[in-house]
Automatic annotation (TrEMBL):
It comes from the Bacteria. It is an enzyme of class 2 (transferase). Homotetramer. Residues 296-366 form the Glucose-1-phosphate adenylyltransferase/Bifunctional protein GlmU-like C-terminal hexapeptide domain. Alpha-D-glucose 1-phosphate binds at G171, E186, K187, S197. Involved in the biosynthesis of ADP-glucose, a building block required for the elongation reactions to produce glycogen. Catalyzes the reaction between ATP and alpha-D-glucose 1-phosphate (G1P) to produce pyrophosphate and ADP-Glc. GO terms for biological process: glycogen biosynthetic process. GO terms for molecular function: ATP binding; glucose-1-phosphate adenylyltransferase activity. NCBIfam families: glgC (TIGR02091), PRK05293.1 (NF003670). The gene is glgC. HAMAP family: GlgC. The keyword Transferase applies. This is Glucose-1-phosphate adenylyltransferase. Pathway: Glycan biosynthesis; glycogen biosynthesis.
Amino acid sequence: MIFARRQMSTEMLAMILAGGQGTRLGKLTKEIAKPAVPFGGRYRIIDFTLSNCVNSGIKHVGVVTQYQPLALNNHIGNGASWGLDGIDAGVTILHPYSSTDGEKWFEGTAHAIYQNISYIDQMDPQYVLILSGDHIYKMNYEAMLEEHIANGASLTVGVIEVPLKEASRFGIMNTDEHDQIIEFDEKPEEPKSNLASMGIYIFNWDSLRSVLMGSSSDEDHLLDFGKHVIPSYLEAGEKVYAYRFNGYWKDVGTIDSLWEASMEFIQLDNELSMRDKSWRMFSKNMISPPHFLTETASVAHSLIVDGCYVAGNIENSILSTNVEVKSGSTVKNSVIMPGAKIGRNVWIENAIIGENAIIGDDAVIYKENEIKVVGYSEVIGGKQDENQ
């Protein structure tokens, strides 16, 4: 059955799951949720998903938070930076709360949606788009919805081809010749295909609501979309289709993948095409003065953002907002997050320096074959370490 189209702003609600702790990012997520981690000098990871929503014509967005939400809440605010503060647009921050049955914390992706059924009902969408807030990519969700409707699907899963040797790390979708999903394997030892789930789903809200409400009284709740809901849909004979995505997509859930994505971001011809005015990436940016390069500064193939003071040598690196690098210091193949201060005669290579970190004079942040990490507001070297 093909559903009639209504205005994009009212037919599909986006729900961004942004409560992840991101433990594999170690020190970088000790104080903030993974979607709030800075990326690319002037962005935070969640900016890419939010901007995709706006560019796709989606004007109603719920952001589901849980772990360390303060920085994320402050960043999103009322959604004005993304144009989500209008009469017919809005972003709503959704926190865990104690319900009548005593539940509070979200126990999985599907459980997070279940706890927010009242909000979704209030928005009254025909379709619900489930998104992760911790991936770097550009994607037109409207094109995915059009295919969902054309297929008469109950559920459409965004998938991307991965090398077959890496497929065992993902939830793998096995499809027929029409891309209808016939089998789902969660991290299979011997994958039958290389179509990996991106954690992007479009559901018909009526059917998803019925499934979630029906499972709430079962002993085995449908807590997770990948582990529980998709298999449940397949077992019930629902039409479940794969939507193939062919662009740049990066799950920056590990230190190595975050560093790799950052190094790719520096490249002028990177696949994200950040200078493409037809698909802009929006963010809440601090008002800072222009960056300043002293007579001792040397900068090559790097991104230097507003508010930076540079008196040292910068090579193939990203200096985020309000970073300071004093004379005699070298930053190479590294990411320096907002507000970090680097003293004199410091050597930083293959590293990620967290927000507001302080690197004292003469410190060395480098280890061969390893990405070194300095955490949020961490102090390294200088007088601060004399008694340690």
